[in-house]
Amino acid sequence: MRGLGFILLFGCSFEHGISAPDAPRATTDGANALQDGTSMDGGGGCTTAGLACPNPIVIDAVSCNGGCWTRCQSLNQITQAQASAVCAGWGGKLAPIRDASDEGCVALVLFPGQSSWSGLEQQNTATQLAQGWTWNGDGVAISYTHWDLGQPDDANGSENGAEQCSMLNSFGFWHDVPCGNTLYRFTCRR
Question: Most exposed among 15, 36, 106, 153, judged by the fewest C-beta atoms under 10 Å?
Answer without folding.
Answer: 36
